Every structure is written in C-alpha cells, then in structure tokens.
Please model this.
Amino acid sequence: MPATDTFKVPARLVPSNRAAAAFRPATLIDIRRETPAMSTFRFAVPDWPGHRPGQHVMMRLTAPDGYTAQRHYSLASPPGDTGHLELTVDHVSGGEVSGHLHTTAKPGDTVEIKGPLGGFFAWPGDRPALLLGGGSGVVPLMSMLRHHRTLDLKVPLHLVVSVRDRESLPYASEFGPETTVVLSRTEGRLHAGQLAAPLSHPPDGGWEAYVCGSNGFAEHASRLLVTGGQPRDRIRIERFG
Model:
C-alpha cells in the first residue's frame, strides 16, 4: 500500500473523488511480463472516469466464501487510454493480491477497482517535472512519462530510475534521452552527481519534483534534492511499504 507525504500539498491538486467512491468491475485482458518479479496487468473498465498521472487505485478480490483482500496499486497507463488501465505489480512473497495476479489470474477474469485515488502526487502536465523512482516506485512516474509523450507536451520532464540491475528494470524499451537509469549493483546508490545536470540547470519556473519508492529511497532521494537546491515545498513524495 502506498503511503504519501509531501512538504506542501497545494489545494489545487486535491480532487473531488465522487466518481471514485465505489468499486467497479474490471476485466483482465492482457498480462505483460516486465521483469522476473514484475508484470503489467491491463484491464478493461468501460465506465472508467479517467485519472491523472500519479494517481492510484484500490483493487479488491473476493473469494467464493466471501473473504476479501484489497491492495492499493499505482496506475502505469496514461490518462488518454480511454476505457482501460494498466497496473504494474511486484510479486510480493506471501502477498494475497499480488500472488493471485501473478500465479492465478488470466485474461477474462474480473476484479473490482476503486479509483482513481490520490491527488497531491498527481502531475497535471503543466509544469516541469523531475521524477525520481526507486524500483517499483517508477510505476506512477511511468504514467507521467507516457502522458508527456502522448500529448507531446513541451514542458521539460526528466526521469531518474534506480534499480538493482538491468534485469530488474521495467519498461526498459520505453526509456529515451529524458531518462537516467542508475544500476545500484554496479554503480552504487543514487548520488548527487547523477542529479547535478537537472538541478544545476533548472528550467524556467524550476522543477516540481516527484519521488516514489521505499522509505529508504524516498528519504535518501529527497535529501539529495534539497542539498542540490530543490525547494522543499516543491518535492512530493509517495512511499511504498
């Protein structure tokens, strides 16, 4: 389940979630392997109200005996993917929902989805975005990158992804010159030098920074940003754990 915090939450990013208040059926139509431990699950949701990059959903599974399990997952798909959504999910050891998705679910199955949820971590696409993702924390940032490309937005966007090794890198074929990939096994932990270029030459108006990952990654990355000159009130953080 993602936990979210930030140094400042602008009211303009907190949406009305009336359309997101109820669960709705979602039919699994495709499963795409991203890494040995991560897969993208594509769902058809005909009455999906749309979302903003950075938002997430709650998924609920119900067993024949009535037992339910639910988890929060970030949206990987861009808002323009009308009637569909994609969730990239880690196979968590012992995880009820992720375990079901990775070992049992098949196209044609139906789950329940509530959302979109979350507001402050959403990126409206109208300001320069500096994105830092650790591991599966890249998922909501991928929605932002895809949105930027789909609409051919002119505002600057730069993505920094930190993963253990190439085998652990999801979406590898989609990354381009706007992305910096840090392989911690061979390059070590994310460091100031890897953020020097965007932080030392910010675009007009400065960056809005979005950080997503584990508690440890979020703390470390946000400290690097502040040390590099990024204003604290322009850092948004989403933590997984």
In short: The two ends are 6 Å apart (CA to CA). Helices lie at 96-103, 138-150, 184-187, 196-200, 215-227. The first strand starts at residue 2 and ends at 6.
